[in-house]
Amino acid sequence: MASLSRRTLAGPAEFKGIGLHSAQPVVVVVKPGDNGIRFHYQGEVIEAKAENVLSVQFRTQLGSVATIEHLMSALAGLGITDAEIETSASEMPALDGSSKVWVQGLLKAGLKEPGELEQPVSLRPIHYVEGDIDISISAGDGHWRYDFVTGDRWPHEQSAEIQFGLDSYEELIAPARTFGFEEEVEPMQAAGLGQGLTLESALVLGMDGYVNEPRFENEPARHKLLDLIGDLALAGLPAASLDVHAKRSGHISNVAAAVKIRQSLGLI
Predict the structure, then answer these.
(1) Measured between alpha carbons, how far is 32 from 7 in angstroms, rounded to an integer?
(2) How far apart are CA 190 and CA 192, in angstroms?
(3) Most-buried pick from 83, 211, 212, 252 (CB within 10 A)?
(4) Contact criterion met (CB below 8 Å) for 251 and 59
């Protein structure tokens, strides 16, 4: 793996909003750190590691803190390896439905590199397969790709990719919002999900096209890549040190692949 620097914030970054699913008001403060990524809630300190994930139903829940994937993706996208995250509620805010606001706030706080990152000597290729889901992970130079496939249902197939160090996560991936299929929106809301989202912060996919205006033609694929980056960050390896190609994966398989990486490195 390439030599990379540890990276943290130069100062605190504060975010206010309502929980993506719960709509509960929440204040999150991301502070400089020197001990990896850690969440703090009601006196509990939760390390951002795959083995600490308690639920992957419609979101990724780390310990008692839910919907961490967009913030984790922003941290990974900016190469931030160390941060202390304090939250006033048990779910991260929806903000604009993407990682864009997270990235903007983190960059405004400033970044600093206190030293070189100690990395595992080697990572053997990881291949996670379950049915149509396929995730391939290997040591590399930061090339990530996601294939979003819906079969007979529009949009059928989309792809999104990024080369860390060449392409900008901030511009290409961070603005991609969470999304839902039109026929699933009402049942999900009836089940108490997505209460903190609006047509401004979520993209709705109709049977033949987008119901509201997309930010990118392939916004769903970009958001799935955003989620993948956030979930695999729980393996504890920098995104820029991996090559990843995923197809049809979601939070369940993403986190399972992150666990597999940590197991292969003898970390759990």
Answers:
(1) 9
(2) 5
(3) 83
(4) yes
Distance from C-alpha of 16 to C-alpha of 132, rounded to nearest angstrom? 38
Q: Which residues are catalytic?
A: 251
Residues in contact with 65: Cβ distance below 8 Å, sequence separation at least 6, in sequence order: 39, 41, 46, 87, 90, 91, 92
Residue 94 phi/psi, 5-degree rounding, is -70, -35
pLDDT digits (tens, 9 = 90+) for 68-115: 999 999 999 999 999 999 999 999 999 999 999 999 999 999 999 998
| CA gyration radius, the chain | 17
Per-residue pLDDT tens digits for 209-245: 999 999 999 999 999 999 999 999 999 999 999 999 9
Please count the structural domains in the chain: 1
Classify residue 180: in a domain, yes or no. no
Please tell me the pTM assigned to this model. 0.96
